[in-house]
């Protein structure tokens, strides 16, 4: 029986350069306090690193590399060298195994480390790493590459059996996909003591058989023999489970031998033999297809040459490139920049398809049929299997989404999670039909996706979750309010929590979704208010309190145009509950000026609704602060009184169909009687017939403009409000929190991030023209007429 697999200690004996604060010797013994190795600042690439196994020549089965989270190499080549007890290091011939690549880590925002596992089967004493150029990012200012840890596993001492070197080449990099580990827990699996192999998955024999099954499975898929592929997949999972048990038993047996507990060692040996027998049954052997190339192949090596006596730190920077041919062919040196791939004629040559694809601009990834039509998701690889601990609770998800999309939901890759949310939002009718009329089940599954997406640390996933929530609400209109509020409870709590985060986009999206829930008849404002005004024992964070108050102010302001948002006595959305919340959270005298201002605006909004009853809430205000509140109340009373004769309780944005009686001057202009011969907008007098006046509105009035999205002719003064509130395609625009203008969603993020727009003026001081984006003074209709009729706005196409 083969010797037990264990951790192999090594020593870094040479490098072409190192950072003084992150020396190469940090890799010799990895602990939680190790800083890891890092190349010199602004160095030339490639850089080299040479390792020597402490126990001499050993059979190595696995090497693990833990990369730095932001100082990441684009590619690392791996070479091995045989034992050289009687020769100097510079005389050791190094043979190339291949290379592996690392991800740029942009997806995790440089908050994770990539663990690359390489399975080999090679007897060696030396290993050489050729480190190629790094990925450039804002956190890697000096173009460095960092390796946090290296872990080598195998069998100690010399091995009698010779391994075909082709197998080593063929197996190189057939490791499991890259694993992203949390930055603060990244190296936990590599800090085990000597002889501990718990961070390895399989022994060499089991790993070899698993790879053979994987090759056979791929061949079965290529032959479209899916029954065979299914059987091979089941066998692969069975072997993986047995391999983990074998590794654990081997470690326990070694410990028993070290303690001279031979009875225990014998029992463990018998257990190992039974497991090995179960993993090598007749069914397994019959199902495995033999390897494509049964002929032995030799590897030609290029010998590392350097001048005798040259220091190790000055090794050659040119990477060695070799060509691998069959045993009957002569080796030759050639350019080699790709992993090795098998050819039908029995030779192993370079895979140059990546170069060809780069040149042709084509994508080699197969299309993913599950995400057809989903942008940036059509070439996603398959997600990992659902963990056994989650299979029971995933029953409802599988019933609606199917097994594949449920695996995407549980995936550690954020692209999978984002893709499944976007697919459900895009094809909501299809997934609703799968519920067979059980709308409650469909809504519950969608809310699970929404809750998970909103809480995701990747902003793109959260944004997709917001879109899904907006898409799902119409399906819930037939449900009872109590049932719907129960389902949406956790979702609303997540939305309220997002009001306190630093990302403006996510915060605004959460606020819009809460307003949507409040304005939905079957949900209602009381449900939203119960979450907004919820008290906690701990002090509410400043940003969270500000966000909650802002949404509350929005709901109170919308009460004028939406009667469904009116205060409801003896409920969570009552005057008493709102005033109590403001008082308990100390909003009136809060340390944040923004919160104090919002609290005053809330009280002004309440004053418009309940009148002088708000005075009972202002007893504890400072005298000067009380004066400010009373002045705001008085201004509100005057403006409300002035609006009543004009009958202007409508929204600011109006179509050209409004009557002439509604065109009174807001600033005290002459109120001349308008008739059919005078345009009620630009005051142009002419012998208009009814049809001619309509044509004037449609084609030439300089105070009006057609909406480019819906075609409706509206006042230029109300264009922003129309795009945000009234337009049939209002979802195409969002309001900039800085300038207040309607910005196309496609360019919204870029517009907000640049912060070069003019801040919105106070409504009583000036207006903002949506065409030329300049401030207009004075405010009101007089300023609009001056700008559009006298100054003639340069961006007005009707001038």
Automatic annotation (TrEMBL):
Keywords: Coiled coil. InterPro entries: ARM-like, CEP104-like, CEP104_N, CEP104_Znf, TOG, UVR_dom. One of its GO terms (cellular component) is cilium. The keyword Coiled coil applies. Residues 232-259 form a coiled coil. It comes from the Eukaryota. Pfam families: CEP104-like_TOG, CEP104_N, CEP104_ZnF, UVR. Residues 396-642 form the TOG domain. The keyword Coiled coil applies. Residues 324-333 have a biased composition (Polar residues). Residues 351-360 have a biased composition (Acidic residues). Residues 300-369, 637-674 are annotated as: Disordered. This is TOG domain-containing protein. It comes from Albugo candida. The lineage of its organism: Eukaryota, Sar, Stramenopiles, Oomycota, Peronosporomycetes.
């Amino acid at each position: 029986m083969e010797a037990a697999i264990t951790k192999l200690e090594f020593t870094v004996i040479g490098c072409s350069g190192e950072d003084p604060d992150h020396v190469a010797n940090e890799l010799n013994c990895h602990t939680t306090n190790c800083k890891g190795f890092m190349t010199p600042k602004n160095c030339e690439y490639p850089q080299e690193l040479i390792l020597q196994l402490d126990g001499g020549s050993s059979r190595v089965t696995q090497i693990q590399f833990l990369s730095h989270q932001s100082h990441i190499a684009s590619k690392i080549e791996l070479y091995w060298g045989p034992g050289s007890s009687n020769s100097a290091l510079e005389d050791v011939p190094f043979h190339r195994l291949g290379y592996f690549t690392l991800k740029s880590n942009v997806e995790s925002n440089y908050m994770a480390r990539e663990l690359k596992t390489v399975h080999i089967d090679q007897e060696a004493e030396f290993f050489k790493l050729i480190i190629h150029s790094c990925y450039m990012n804002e956190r890697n200012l000096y173009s460095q590459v960092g390796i946090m840890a290296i872990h080598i596993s195998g069998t100690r001492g010399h091995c009698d059996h010779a391994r075909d070197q082709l197998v080593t080449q063929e197996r190189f990099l057939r490791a499991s996909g890259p694993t992203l580990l949390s930055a603060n827990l990244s190296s936990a699996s590599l800090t085990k003591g000597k002889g501990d192999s718990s961070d390895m998955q399989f022994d060499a024999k089991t790993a070899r058989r698993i790879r053979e099954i994987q090759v056979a499975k791929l061949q079965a898929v290529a032959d479209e023999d899916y029954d065979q592929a299914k059987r091979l997949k089941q066998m692969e999972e069975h072997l993986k489970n047995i391999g983990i048990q074998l590794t654990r038993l081997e470690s326990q047996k070694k410990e028993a031998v070290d303690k001279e507990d031979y009875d225990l060692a014998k029992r463990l040996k018998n257990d190992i033999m039974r497991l090995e027998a179960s993993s090598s049954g007749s069914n397994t052997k019959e199902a495995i297809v033999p390897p494509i190339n049964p002929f032995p192949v030799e590897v030609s090596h290029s010998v590392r040459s350097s001048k005798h006596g040259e220091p190790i730190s000055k090794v050659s920077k040119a990477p060695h490139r070799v060509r691998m041919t069959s045993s009957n062919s002569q080796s030759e040196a050639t350019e080699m920049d790709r992993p090795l791939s098998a050819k039908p004629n029995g030779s192993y040559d370079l895979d140059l398809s990546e170069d060809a694809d780069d040149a042709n601009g084509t994508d080699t990834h197969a299309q993913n049929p599950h995400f057809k039509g989903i942008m940036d998701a059509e070439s996603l690889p398959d997600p990992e299997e659902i963990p056994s601990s989650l299979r029971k609770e995933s029953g409802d998800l599988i019933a609606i989404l199917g097994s594949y999309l449920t695996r995407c939901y549980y995936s550690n890759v954020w692209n999978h999670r984002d893709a499944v949310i976007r697919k459900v939002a895009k094809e909501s009718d299809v997934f609703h039909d799968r519920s067979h009329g059980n709308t409650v089940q469909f809504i519950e599954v969608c809310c699970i996706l929404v809750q998970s997406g909103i809480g995701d640390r990747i902003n793109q996933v959260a944004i997709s979750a917001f879109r899904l929530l907006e898409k799902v609400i119409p399906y819930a209109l037939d449900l009872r309010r109590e049932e719907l509020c129960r389902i949406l409870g956790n979702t609303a709590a997540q939305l309220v929590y997002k009001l306190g985060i630093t990302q403006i986009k996510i915060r605004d999206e959460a606020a819009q979704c809460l307003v949507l829930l409040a304005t939905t008849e079957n949900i209602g404002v009381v449900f939203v208010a119960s979450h907004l005004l919820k008290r906690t024992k701990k002090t509410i964070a400043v940003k969270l309190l500000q966000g909650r108050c802002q949404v509350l102010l929005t709901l109170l302001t919308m009460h004028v145009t939406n009667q469904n948002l009116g205060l409801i006595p003896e409920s969570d959305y009552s005057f008493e509950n709102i005033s109590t919340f403001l008082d308990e959270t100390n909003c009136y005298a809060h340390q944040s000026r923004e919160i104090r201002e919002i609290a005053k605006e809330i009280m002004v909004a309440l004053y418009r609704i309940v009148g002088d009853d708000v005075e009972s809430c202002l007893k504890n205000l400072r005298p000067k602060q009380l004066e400010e509140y009373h002045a705001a109340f008085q201004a509100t009373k005057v403006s409300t009184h002035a609006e009543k004769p004009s009958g202007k309780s409508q929204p600011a944005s109006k179509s050209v169909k409004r009557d002439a009686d509604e065109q009174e001057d807001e600033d005290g202009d002459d109120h001349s009687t308008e008739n059919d011969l005078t345009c009620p907008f630009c005051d142009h007098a002419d012998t208009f017939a009814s049809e001619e006046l309509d044509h004037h509105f449609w084609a030439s009035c300089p105070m009006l403009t057609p909406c480019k999205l819906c075609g409706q002719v509206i006042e230029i003064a109300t264009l922003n409000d129309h795009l945000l509130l009234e337009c049939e395609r209002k979802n195409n625009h969002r309001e900039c929190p800085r300038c207040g203008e309607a910005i196309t969603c496609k360019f919204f993020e870029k517009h907000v991030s640049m912060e070069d727009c003019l801040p919105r003026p106070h409504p009583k001081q000036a207006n903002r023209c949506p065409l030329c984006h300049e401030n207009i003074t004075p405010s009101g209709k007089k300023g609009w007429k001056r700008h559009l009729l006298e100054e003639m706005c340069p961006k007005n196409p009707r001038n």
